[in-house]
Amino acid sequence: MPANLPPEYFSAERLFKEAKSIEEKVQCLEDLISTIPKHKGTDKLRADYRRKLAKLKSTSQAAKKTGKHSSNFHIEKEGAGRVAVVGMPNTGKSSLICKLTHAAPEVSDSPYTTWLPCPGMMNYENIQIQLIDTPPLNKDYFEPEIFDLIKSSNLILVLVDLQADPIDQFQTSIEILNGNRIYSPHQQNFEDERKVFRVPFVIVVNKNDDTKLDEDFAVLDEFLHEEWELISISIRNGRKLEELAELIFKQLKIIRVYSKPPHKEAENSQPFVLNEGATIDEFAMKVHKDFYDKLKTARVWGKGVYDGQLVGRDHKIYDGDIVELHI
Length: 327
What we know:
Layout: H1 7-18, H2 22-34, H3 43-65, E1 82-87, H4 93-100, E2 118-124, E3 127-133, H5 144-151, E4 155-161, H6 166-179, E5 182-183, E6 197-198, E7 201-206, H7 214-224, E8 230-232, H8 241-252, E9 254-259, E10 272-275, H9 280-287, H10 289-294, E11 297-301, E12 309-311, E13 322-326
Parallel strand pairs: 1-3, 1-4, 4-7, 5-6, 7-8, 9-13
Antiparallel strand pairs: 2-3, 9-10, 11-12, 11-13
Helix pairs in contact: 1-2, 2-3
């Protein structure tokens, strides 16, 4: 059976091959494995990579026991997706992480308060999404490892300050990211495409603290909205933070699918998270390999079906669907 690997696989594979340290290799290999579709055609490939990952982790643990320290820029992936929060100094990155997660990065009016990445978990309707506060973007100085971390993200939030030349902040931020081979999927690129990392961007316009500033945002939106996804918020007043969380979920292009054991109620508190377009086949593998191997049929409650409709392995499932597997 052919592997039918997606474009994300080849980008992740390049990053893994370019990784230098063991910690970077572990992170990149975890990302690489997550891009591989789960079906019989990829079983051997996934198994090979899992063996490599186990060996790298073993080597990493051995190194730690001998006194070597892992990089402060290596952060384990957690939750349903990873979102990097980036921007120029004093745009509100750390404050946003504090508002949306339980993390507590240092917050200050002074520039460059954040020197190391700080992760936090955002709760969104029964799932958790990892947000990472990053050091401010700077043309003159940066740690190369921070861009490796950003490349491993599923989404990038670019913060700008509506009250402090947001267009210049936007243009400078995009220039720095592009200069480190990080591009939005829609951007043109004049480099070798094989060396570019494509990650979706959302431009988050902070400090829209009063409805009087809506007009300023409207001007910025008119300038950028044809190419970029924009949302205005106020971290200080909590304005549109719920809309931002919803937009993050939508931009990650993931779905929540609930498992229902036969003759029992659905397990509504702990959904399985899959990519948009996933099938019953992929859901079965997510639940357990035994279900994938022995699956005969499934019943689905949700979009495009009548309640409890029998479906086959190739049936496409949607966000909020309830699935009952039969083996």
